[in-house]
Amino acid sequence: MSAMAKKAKNFKKSKTGLYVSLGSTAFGAISVAKQARLAREDGDVLRLIDAAVSAAAIVTGLAILYRELKRLGDDDVLLG
Which regions span the lipid bilayer (predicted)? Predict the structure, then answer.
């Protein structure tokens, strides 16, 4: 594995990588909110269910990322 590939693999487990993942997941939440609003306006139950399932996936993803961030913070003396 090249040095660049190792850096990319370790980026996902770094604090910066977790912050980028949190941001992109939160950005996805905006899209789901728009989808839910349009589904409510149109009265489309199936799209509304899809938005609710997507929102549940986003909440779960954010919880997992938060847990990983907290786990990384346990090693840091200053973060407590």
Answer: 45-66
